[in-house]
Amino acid sequence: MTDPINDHTTDSDHNSHQALDPKTLPNFDDMPNVALMDTSHVDKDQPPFILVDGSYYLFRTYHALPKTMQNSQGLITNAIRGTLNALLKLMRRYHPTHMAVCFDTKSPTFRHHMSSDYKAARPPIDVELVEQIPYIHRLVSALGIPLLRIEGAEADDIIGTLAYRAVEQGHHVVISTGDKDMMQLVNDGVILEDSFTGKITDTQAVIDKFGINPNQMIDFLTLMGDSSDGIKGVPGIGKKTAKDLLVEYGDIDNMLKHIGFIKGRGAKGLIEHADDIPFNRKLATIITNLEIGQDWNDLKINTDPCAHIEELRTLYTELEFRNELASLDHPNHPANGLQSVADSQANTESHAQVAKSLQSTNTDNMTGSNHQDKAWHTVLDEPAFDSLIEALEAAPHFVIDTETTSVHWREAQIVGLSFAVQAHEAYYIPLTHRLEGDELTAKQLDRDTVLARLKPILENPNIGKIGQHLKYDAHILAHYDIDLVGAIHEQPNNWAMDTMLASYVINAAATRHGMDDLARHYLQTQTISFEEVAGKGAKQVTFDQVAIDIASDYACEDADITYQLFDVFSVELANDANNAKLLHELEIPTAEILCQMEANGILIKRSFLNELSKRFDEEIVALEKRAYEVAGEEFNLGSPKQLGEMLFEKLGVPGGKKTKSGQYSTGEAVLSKIDHPLVDITLEYRGLSKLKSTYTDALDNVADAETDRVHTSYHQALTSTGRLSSTDPNLQNIPIRTATGRLIRQAFIAPEGRVILAADYSQIELRLMAHFSGDKNLTHAFNEGLDIHAATAAEVLGKDVADVTPTERRNAKAINFGLLYGMSAFGLAKQLQMSRGEAQDYIDMYFERYPGVKNYMINTRASAYEQGYVETILGRKLYTPDINHSNRMVKQGAERAAINAPLQGSAADLIKLAMIAVDNVLPKDQAKMLLQVHDELVFEVDADKVDAVSQLITDAMQDVLRTTAVDKGWHVDFAVPLLVETDSGQNWDEAH
DNA sequence: GCATCATCTTA
DNA sequence: GTAAGATGATGCG
Questions:
Q1: Measured CA to C1', what is the nucleotide nearest A665?
Q2: Cα Rg for chain A, rounded, in angstroms?
Q3: Where exactly are the structural domains of chain A?
Q4: Count of other CB atoms within 10 angstroms of residue A42
Q5: A933 CA – B11 C1', rounded, Å
Q6: How far is CA A593 from CA A327, A596, A597, A657, in A?
Q7: Residue nearest to nucleotide B7 (CA to C1')
Q8: Which pLDDT score, from 0 to 100, does residue A323 have?
Q9: Structural fold of domain A606-707
Q10: Per the UniProt entry, what are the Gene Ontology biological process annotations, in alphabetical order (predicted)?
Q11: Counting beta carbons within 10 angstroms of the beta carbon of residue A734, is it exposed (0 to 12), middle (13 to 18) or buried (19 or more)?
Q12: Protein-to-nucleotide distance from the CA of A735 to the C1' of B7, whole angstroms
């Protein structure tokens, strides 16, 4: 076999200056399609031939890495460093023998001659980048890597041509790039690797990302267009349509043959622009038959470490790349040098995302909206607003989304609104953008005028509102005196939907339920991330600082995606009536109530908290002092690591237990078994510093400065079981177990003339266990109103309830809780500090007396295996994806979760029903619902009305399965009574 | 500056 | 043994 890549040898110097005449078009008719090549002869045992898209790394790393990378001369070196790291990473990974780094040149190419638009939208290259380029060229040469720049040819085309020749000659190829256009070159012998992000793209990855084969990429780009390259695409066809058409018809030629069968705007665009297609196709095609000469020997890497070492030393010295310089002194251990480079690559990767946004923002800014095909509109004048209003009034339902200055609803200011009345069409009304130099800023419609005209529509219950996480939007609109109705208020006659809650109800475990996650999971679409438009970390700006054309794309996409999700979920829910009921009758009404509760907030007594804080602090300081005395030196008592070393090494206390990651375990369970003065001090110190940092100080910080109220946020689509969670601050883990901890609770108060009232379901999960298991002994105990733990002890030990000792009751309580958690003998033994055998005996005795409970455990496990899910009392399906996991530990964990899920999840269903039931009867002028803590509701009630209100609440909660549940179509014949206990007082502690 | 670990709080 | 969230310390870069 002859040399593979020498068809047109003209010059054997690999840094040669070949040139192509840009006026000569490539031969498109005869052009080989790399994606369709036969690769059966390719020898994958050899190192791959590496083709590096040097221009990509130049731009990518320049924009992504911090400009603070400079040498002492002020030369910015970020692109040099980034490109160098990419090259070294490739060499370390593949140990290639042949390689080429390709760069574009400044000369025009045939594409510029074909189209004046081609890359015309690109701004001039920054001077800070230009001055780095010579260094990069020199570095590549000094590393002994062939460098290719050919006048009149783009790096893409050189790579395409060499990739074709290499595969033809039996080499497999790694193209090092992040440019998606290159996907048209992927086949079973050619992969793409982005050494900056680490992403590898093979045939399957192309299919996963775009739903088409690599050989369809050219047609895909032709249809969709590429704004950054100035390829127009077909109007009316975007990513989704292009994919659908290609999946159905294979290629554009076949589409045009069957144009009569194609529907919608896509067909119109194809017919009207059929003539442009061959032209755009040529622009989108990477040339694979360039008339260039390249000898295989010229693409050999010079691996002799001494060949260019002086040049490298000079470069590294001038650039002040110290690690790289040091690596040169170990020529026999190139891995050392490469290793240190690999480390710094990891570093750059951590910075990679930082400026990703800047780069894409700039690109978007340059090219304007590239989504004409999607019919996304920015509403900037009265006529456009008028027609939008008309469309919204006429629609049975529409998507609304608010854009604001913050993810925290309490501080968010409205910036704009987006709407969608059908999929693929969306409108953005910018209101308060204020980016300096953005010419659209002055054209925005007036915020208050717009809101005033929208108010009647948004408050119209006959027009359904669709949204993603509507509770947030409802909060925002409430700020502007708009009560969002027809969406989170229950409106059975419209299509109101919250897509986040729909996804959660359908399958809580399938995905997280943020919009980006839903788009990925249900629409196979990657959305524009917020970070892409607003930046990340310290550089992030608020949405009002985003240019309006970029903001509009982002906001329109949100509304559009939400509408598409609505379509998907509408079908899903039509096929599962119970899921539809859970969404519309349980979750959406709950969201509405949560919205009010969050807005209400709970009053705290700041002076009391501050006093506590001071007191805790004094005690903490005293404890620290005593600890240092005992230890003989000062150390950080709050550091488990330092404490472990002090206790078990320096003080030689026995009982040091190792934990994974190697340090001593100093958890409460370990320490409490040790008799040592330092242990007592530590435990007290920890308790106090926990209370101070997590509660007294934190609550004071988050309380509203004017009203002294604390407003938590409830997350309704987060847990695997249906429970809520609470953040910023978490008001579901306020201390109660210790006397000192309860002091925190005393800071939650009612205002003058009112009291705090707490109502909680007694033993709700055990009652659910009684219901689900139907166990005679357990149901009997609840029906007789016995002390359930004492009754359990009596039953298991075969004695009278009156004779049960406190220890016996405590053990029974542990086993009862253990049941709810999918108990093992191991776990129970640890809890009760007994041997595993004793614990097992106890469990065996329990199951003998409560055979129904044993059956529940067996049946629930079986159901999880057979169906892949378990169900709550209202029929909520809780999926158990790990139930067949290959790892035994994971699998057993999934079994325990499956046993617990119906109990915890049903309790969550019931408290949500209870919230709805109570909300229906609560006299709003006398009482407000403030908090939900899983089985407890907390209210603020007029002091003189507390008895009556308490009775209303108790009745509503106890009767919920006979009243509200039945009204909504859930008929549950509950096996035991639901018992609610209430109490009230000046603060939350007294009310409990 | 950001992620992870260990710890502690709740139902 | 279930389900959560917040914190300070620590390590990474």
A1: B6
A2: 34
A3: 34-342, 375-575, 606-707, 764-898
A4: 21
A5: 7
A6: 64, 5, 6, 48
A7: A667
A8: 65
A9: Taq DNA Polymerase; Chain T, domain 4 (1.20.1060)
A10: DNA-templated DNA replication; double-strand break repair
A11: buried
A12: 15
From CA A985, how far away is CA A765, in angstroms rounded? Answer: 27
Spacing of A103 CA from B4 C1' in Å? 41
Nucleotide nearest A911, from its CA to each C1' = B11
Q: Rounded to an integer, what distance in angstroms lies between the CA atom of residue A926 and that of residue A938?
A: 14
Q: Please, which residues bridge with residue A445 across strands?
A: none
How far in angstroms lies nucleotide C10's C1' from the CA of residue A643? 14
In terms of CATH, what superfamily is A34-342?
5'-nuclease (3.40.50.1010)
pLDDT at A78: 83
Sign of CA dihedral A945, A947, A952, A953: positive
A340 burial class (0-12, 13-18, 19+ CB within 10 angstroms)? Answer: middle
Q: Which nucleotide is nearest to A897 (CA to C1')?
A: C2
Closest residue (CA) to C1' of nucleotide B5 is A661
First to last CA, chain A: 88
Structure tokens that stand for A210 in this block: 């775009």
pLDDT at A330: 55
> Which nucleotide comes closest to A644 if you measure CA to C1'?
B6
User: Contact A283/A118 with Cβ under 8 angstroms?
Assistant: yes
pTM beyond 0.70, yes or no: no
Residue A774 one-letter amino acid: G
Q: Are A359 and A550 in contact (CB under 8 A)?
A: no
How many Å does it take to go from CA A919 to C1' C2?
29
Which residue has its C-alpha nearest to nucleotide C4's C1'?
A725
Q: Torsion angle of alpha carbons A436, A438, A440, A441, nearest 10°? A: -10
* Residues A4/A97, Cβ–Cβ less than 8 Å: no
Task: Provide the b/e sequence for A299-337 (b: ≥16 CB within 10 Å).
Answer: bbbeeeeeebeeebeebbeebebeebbebbeeeeebeeb
Per-run averaged pLDDT (10 residues), chain A, 992 residues: 40 59 87 92 91 90 74 85 86 88 90 78 81 93 92 92 94 92 93 81 82 87 77 76 81 81 72 80 90 86 80 89 71 34 31 30 32 77 96 94 95 97 95 95 97 96 93 97 71 70 96 94 88 86 95 96 94 93 95 96 97 96 95 93 92 84 88 92 95 95 96 97 96 96 97 98 98 97 97 96 96 94 89 89 95 96 96 97 92 95 98 98 98 98 98 98 97 98 97 94
From A446, A447, A458, A450, select the one nearest A393 (Cα to Cα). A458
Integer CA distances (angstroms), A777 to A791, A896, A907, in order: 9, 23, 21
Q: Structure tokens of A842?
A: 């106890």
Sign of CA dihedral A347, A353, A355, A359: positive
Give the burial class of A253: count Cβ atoms within 10 A of its Cβ; 0-12 exposed, 13-18 middle, 19 or more buried: exposed
Distance from CA(A363) to C1'(B3), angstroms, rounded: 30
Q: Where on strand C do bases come within 7 A of a protein Cβ?
A: 1-13
**What are phi and psi for residue A756, nearest 5 degrees?**
-90, 135
Residue in A920, A917, A944, A919 with CA at minimum distance from that of residue A930: A919
Q: State, as a whole number of angstroms, the distance between the CA of A641 and the C1' of B4.
A: 15
Nearest to A722, CA basis, from A910, A887, A452, A575: A910
Using the C1' atom of nucleotide B9, identify the protein residue whose alpha carbon is closest.
A733
| In this structure, CATH architecture of domain A764-898 | Orthogonal Bundle (1.10)
Task: Give nucleotides in strand B with any atom < 7 A to a protein C-beta.
Answer: 1-2, 5-11
Nearest nucleotide to the CA of A664, by C1', is B6
Please report the pLDDT score of residue A227 as a whole number: 67
Under 8 Å CB-to-CB from A26, ≥6 apart: which residues? A110, A157, A287, A289, A290
